[in-house]
Amino acid sequence: MKSNRICAVITDKKQNISQIAGLADLFEVRIDLIGEGWEECAAKLPKAWIACNRRKEEGGNWQGSEERRVEKLLRALPLGASIIDIELETNGLDKIVPVIKQKASCLISSHNMKETPYFDELKDIVARQIDAGADICKVVTFADKDEDNFTVLRLIPEFPGKRIIAFAMGEKGLASRILCPIIGGDFTYAAIEKGAESAAGQITVANLRQIYGMVKNDI
């Protein structure tokens, strides 16, 4: 299995990163949740990190203009971000992606906060992400039923050789969050501590690492 399996999501600059640094493989800096001071937070990280400034339509908390949102996100490039997360529906994506790829890997994401669409629709989303220049494709849906886990996870083997992150949010999507990296997904996301979740259904880094410790490498 890949070593990069757990991405710890930083939602507050006061969080104790050191307590989980050894359990996480990389970090996500949520600019929209941290607010002022996110740069100082990113500068102290001991491992690779993703910059994310999530738009409200996809579950984020950004309050300013779209132009300013992208501007803040790109500030992470000279600060050393390894990956920049930009939404597929971002205006001017064709101009933003080449800028990102000059200094970092480009993760193009899509979040459906209401449901899990049909598999063919999800495949089309990944195809669009690849066409847009994604180094990593991320598709996240909301699980209304148990079968939604299987629907979204099928994206991972559907695109062999591509770096895919696919899982479902919500209580019913927990299985897909855990299984994503086990079946070949690039990584999955986890909260630094209980109560600091960045999305519905997220479990903690410590709990996720404990689960992965129970999985045999030859499975």
Summarize the structure.
32% of the residues lie in helices and 20% in strands. The protein has 219 residues and is an alpha/beta fold. Strands 7-6-5-4-3-2-1-8 form an 8-stranded parallel β-sheet.
Shape: globular
Counting DSSP H or I runs of 4 or more residues, the number of helices is: 9
What summary fits the major beta sheet? 8 strands, parallel
Q: Find the structural class using helix and strand composition.
A: alpha/beta
Strand order of the largest sheet: 7-6-5-4-3-2-1-8
What top-tier CATH class of one domain fits best?
Alpha Beta
List the secondary-structure elements in sequence, H or E.
EEHHEHEHEHEHHEHEH
- Uncertain stretches of 5 or more adjacent residues: none
Arithmetic mean pLDDT: 94
CATH fold name of one domain: TIM Barrel
Question: What are the salient characteristics of this protein?
Answer:
219 residues; alpha/beta; TIM Barrel
Please describe the topology of this protein:
Elements: E1 6-10, E2 26-30, H1 31-34, H2 38-43, E3 49-52, H3 66-74, E4 83-87, H4 93-101, E5 105-111, H5 119-131, E6 136-142, H6 147-153, H7 155-158, E7 163-169, H8 174-182, E8 188-191, H9 205-213
Parallel strand pairs: 1-2, 1-8, 2-3, 3-4, 4-5, 5-6, 6-7
Helix pairs in contact: 6-8
